[in-house]
Amino acid sequence: MLLGVDVGGTFTDAVLIDGPRVHTAKVPSTPQDQSSGVLAAIELLLERTGAQPGQLRAFSHGMTVATNALLEGRGARTAMVATAGFTDIVELARQARPSLYSLCEAAPPPLVPPELRFGAQERMTPSGPSQPLRHEAARELVRELARQEPQAVAVTLLHSYAHPQHEQLLGELLAELLPGVHVSLSHQLVGTFREYERAVTTEVDAALSPLLAGYLRGLGERTELAGLPEPQIMQSSGGLTDRTHAAAHAAVSVLSGPAGGVMGALELTSLAGEQDVLCFDMGGTSCDVCLIDGGEVAETAHRTVAGRPLALPALDIHTVGAGGGSIAWRDAGGALRVGPRSAGADPGPACYVRGGREPTVTDANLLLGRLLEDIPLAGGVSLDRDAAERAVGALAAELGLDTLRCAEGIVRVAEVEMLGALRVMTVQRGIDPRRFTLMPFGGAGPLHALSLAQELGISRVLCPRACGVLCALGLASAQPRQDAARTVMLAGAQLTEQRISRERRELIAQASGLLGCPPERLRVRYELRYRGQSFELGVDERERTDPRLLGELFARQHEERYGYRDSEGELELVTIRVSAWGKATRLELTGERADAPAPEPRIVVYEGRELTAQCLHGDLPPGTKLSGPAICAMREATLFILPDWSASVDAYGNILLGWDGAE
Known about the structure:
Elements: E1 2-7, E2 11-18, E3 21-28, H1 34-49, E4 58-62, H2 65-72, E5 78-83, H3 89-92, E6 117-120, E7 123-125, E8 128-131, H4 135-146, E9 152-156, H5 165-177, E10 182-185, H6 186-189, H7 195-225, E11 231-234, E12 240-242, H8 243-248, H9 256-272, E13 277-282, E14 287-293, E15 296-297, E16 299-300, E17 303-305, E18 308-310, E19 314-315, E20 318-320, E21 326-330, E22 336-342, H10 361-367, H11 385-399, H12 403-425, E23 437-441, H13 445-456, E24 460-463, H14 470-476, E25 481-491, H15 497-515, E26 521-530, E27 537-540, H16 547-562, E28 571-581, E29 600-606, E30 609-617, E31 625-627, E32 630-633, E33 638-641, E34 645-649, E35 655-659
Parallel strand pairs: 1-4, 4-11, 5-6, 5-9, 9-10, 13-23, 30-32
Antiparallel strand pairs: 1-2, 2-3, 7-8, 11-12, 13-14, 14-15, 14-20, 16-19, 17-18, 21-22, 24-35, 25-28, 26-27, 26-28, 29-30, 31-34, 32-33, 34-35
Helix pairs in contact: 2-7, 4-5, 9-14, 10-11, 10-12, 11-12, 12-13
């Protein structure tokens, strides 16, 4: 049996995979101590299935501890050591405004204040030291730093990616003179050039690691007492790592939860035979979008989270603050707005009757008949229509609208925000969304999926049976993964097959060593550019290291991206990245074999009109067919089927929807 638990902003989801069967549970998240919600979800799941902790082979976990701390600008008391003269590099940044036309908008402040920044009297060049770091000077620097009593230290010296000796010396002295204080060394964490991005990533890692380590230590103690397996932690890259590594490097798991959803989507699209899928994960707090193209999801090592660049491998996911709990409000100009502020798990939407009074997207959907008052949501949450009407009605009065029109406006504004995210990943990149299948998941995703598909001209939607807990499903089936990267800066006579092979072998050994076992799968990515360019393009080549082959692969990609290739340009190999995966788990899921539930007529409001929709409660067995308007109240999510859409259920319990009105 495989267990996956994902902590979201509103709910904590748990999935237990037992051969071809999938068991699920959903409980409200516990923001004050996320591990309480994790244990509650596991206990509920074991109670429902009758399984014993000793029967579990693995426990995979995705959480938002590091994410929330970064979004809120919280962290441990952190000091930074940089090359003398470069201590303010994080604050100086790239001298680019966060918003081109908003002159007063500020970038997030550094996590390390000026009084905790220390300059090391050293200077390293790309070819070696020009000013060596003397041992006594380094010791005195660490003594001075120790007097500030930091909880964590980030060390980020110039060109340490190529020559880490000075950082290693400081790391040894910090371990000796400040035992128990967390230390992040940039060459160990990042290993690539661009000093600003490397410095920010190291600062974030140092500031967040003590918080995450405390959470994971508590979680480990509780799971051990419960007889559960040691938790494996989801990284932003979509691969698992052990609890010790995650606690030591919090920056690798900042996008832990969304990455689990992408891995779950990859598993289910493979089972369904879909290669081109636009994924849309709408939970209670946010909406995450990613693209599966040709059966693969794009990755990036240049991701920005909460205005801070993170130079670590991450799945290419775009996030906006639009979820079921997003709060609707009237702005200073009298316009209706939705989000990014969310009601979260506590107090939650007004209709949860837990103290929330502000109108949310969930309240609007309840008033429009798309959520059902007499059928509790997953997690046993009952909905109160009167409470939703009071909340939405108060906003409607401010806007001069009737309540139902205001509710439709809330849904529409939220969908426009999500459409923007979907277009960022497709239209803005020159990709036609109409050739993709839209896959909604998250508790709120299926409510809005068909409306979004129509706006984008998408005529095919795949709604997974476990869509409401897909992140947890992806966690349960994910593989261990480790990454290693090195900036090499090879050009001209240095760019030889022998040198590339040597660097490749060393990085494979490094990634495999971190993995702790022979890798089941390897990927080697070479980032190249024409000499004089500022940015690189990555090409994959697993076996061969011939510079001419790599140059041809790069030229093809350059031509595809920019419309030309430079046959006279000198090639420069900037960075080599290696990813190593452990053993994979192959899912063999089946749909529920049961009679189709009897439909009940319900009234829903759509485009200002009241429509009679057939409502089905529970998971639909394979072979079920229906047409819109309809409401499918599944175990963890609700699917709203619009008029002119038809649906059928495949062998795995997934609902396949087609737009009959598509051109």
